[in-house]
Amino acid sequence: MADDHKPHFGHTKHGLAVHLHGHDHLRAASDAPWYAKVNAWLALKITKGVGTMWCAYVFAALDLLALPQAIQGGLYGMVQWTASFFLQLVLLSIIMVGQDGQSKASDARAAKTFEDTEVLIDRTDIHTEGGLKAILDEVQELRAQVTQLQTRSNG
Known about the structure:
Helix content is 75%, strand content 0%. The protein has 155 residues and is an all-alpha fold. It folds into two domains: 1-50, no CATH class; 52-154, no CATH class.
């Protein structure tokens, strides 16, 4: 594994790096050819740019330039303008903004689940202080007290 950038959540059982952010995967892909890195970097930049509300506003303004011609084309022109311009351009950016928000929420939930799982695993280890070890130590102490009381009552 040639990861130059340490993954936030370690690696999967198959050796894949688990990073907190998408751009971290680009830095970690040191074994990829140069053109694949450039393509991935460019795609990420374009996606971040198109997936903004500012881009949706720009697309909506551009769409409005074609609206007078669409109105002149009658019902067919309006349907075509709505489907080919407005829905494809403006809603594309709006959907990407919404998906980015959902993705961030999902990533946060996954990170919290990962951290909670680490705590659970740590607490169920019989050698970790404060987890099952503390309970087992208490059980051993109670067992010793019960044995001591039984010895006194029998003797």
